[in-house]
Amino acid sequence: EPEVTQTPSHQVTQMGQEVILRCVPISNHLYFYWYRQILGQKVEFLVSFYNNEISEKSEIFDDQFSVERPDGSNFTLKIRSTKLEDSAMYFCASSREGRGYTFGSGTRLTVV
Amino acid sequence: GQQVMQIPQYQHVQEGEDFTTYCNSSTTLSNIQWYKQRPGGHPVFLIQLVKSGEVKKQKRLTFQFGEAKKNSSLHITATQTTDVGTYFCAALSGSARQLTFGSGTQLTVLP
User: A71: which residues sit within 8 A by CB, 6+ positions away?
Assistant: First the structure.
């Protein structure tokens, strides 16, 4: 069964540093997403990406965040100048029209 | 923005007992999806409900969508230890079909 692949599985970074989280969505999916989940809390929407551009973004997705699809397969989330409160599990997901999401296994980001 | 309320937050059951989690919205939903997240894992899609009053079954799991499309439930019959995890409902919205997740119900099954 096709999978969404995320790397790295765990990232530790110093406060103020930039991080790039990487995802390879399922190849025939059209919609791509980033979500985050702070430990023990619900899954929160960050941004959606369709047709090579951002479709929607949440209030969490401020100027500190950016997304790119640099080639036909990768989908990245960049966090500039990380803060302690950015520590969370970041999930990439993809979907096709009318179907459920397929989530990746996530990147656990720890900002110290 | 859209909000989806889910109760209970936690549920402990003895293996073999039934379990139900409920999801409510103040607005009419176009559809609702259910996901399961095992401890330390990622959300896994279970099902999507679209029609008013829809009922779908997956083995011991029964999913319902209310007549007014403002609420939904997931019922598990005769729970097993493999059912342990957090069950989330999620409502689809926006032009890019983003999901708004409920707060989840964490199910513990005691052997």
Answer: none
